[in-house]
Specification:
disordered N terminus; 7 helices
Length: 232
């Protein structure tokens, strides 16, 4: 059984959902159920067939959500970072997990029991609205990714990934878009169903054409509109 953290002050650090603050937690008398938990790189937060009893909110670091295909191939569904929530399918009837989640680095997450999340949805309209939007956004992201895998070639899939990443995680810096945390070439290959060599070739091509700049820590898209126009 997980220990319970009563350090409500930490909840103020989250921008994802304003209702995760000490005042509202004390009003609903639910704050003491929410735990702040740390995982080391490589640790699993849950596995397939584990009971779907919690939601997770990322405070620090990145997690990788993956599944195995019928052929036993590991498929990365998504990579999430701070202020993102996962495990939300438990709210719509998932009884056992269908995926596994692994820490990509030292991380810290808030662990929210399912009954707490459901009570918050009943008591706070904003929470319910945010969760509904989150589920819809994740479904659209999966649908867009499947369409990309079916209808786009490898080059277009990689460029689509970069534009989606810039739109979702980037911030404008003048005319450019900065993504503070970039992915490794292998991670991009896994997410786009391409090879690491193909990813490296396309990224170097785009950098050579002065459309992007990247290093191990960040991505800078110099002209997001022009990059988007390149998607077949």
């Amino acid at each position: 059984m997980m220990s319970v953290s009563a350090n409500f002050d930490q909840l103020d650090n989250f921008n994802l959902m304003d209702f995760f603050d000490p005042e509202k937690m004390s009003i609903s008398n639910l704050g003491h159920y929410i735990e702040s938990k740390k995982f080391q790189r490589g640790e699993f937060l849950y596995h397939p067939e584990d009971k779907a009893e919690y939601l997770f909110l990322v405070k620090k670091g990145r997690v990788k959500i993956s599944v195995f295909s019928a052929e036993g191939k590991k498929i990365i569904k998504s990579i999430l970072q701070a202020d993102e929530i996962f495990g939300e399918l438990a709210l719509v009837g998932e009884l056992n997990r269908r995926e596994f989640v692994q820490a990509m680095e030292a991380i810290e997450v808030y662990v929210i029991p399912l009954h707490v999340a459901k009570t918050l949805m009943q008591q706070h309209q904003n929470f319910s609205h945010q969760i509904t939007q989150l589920i819809g956004k994740n479904l659209l992201r999966i649908q867009r990714r499947l369409e990309s895998l079916v209808f786009k070639d490898a080059r277009s899939r990689i460029i689509q990934f970069l534009t989606d990443l810039a739109n979702e995680k980037g911030r404008r810096v003048g005319y450019e878009t900065l993504v503070p945390k970039f992915f490794t070439h292998q991670e991009i290959a896994n997410l786009t169903d391409t090879s690491r060599q193909t990813v490296t070739t396309i990224l170097n091509e785009l950098r050579g054409n002065n459309l992007i700049y990247f290093d191990r820590k960040r991505l800078l898209v110099r002209n997001l509109e022009q990059l988007s126009e390149m998607i077949a």
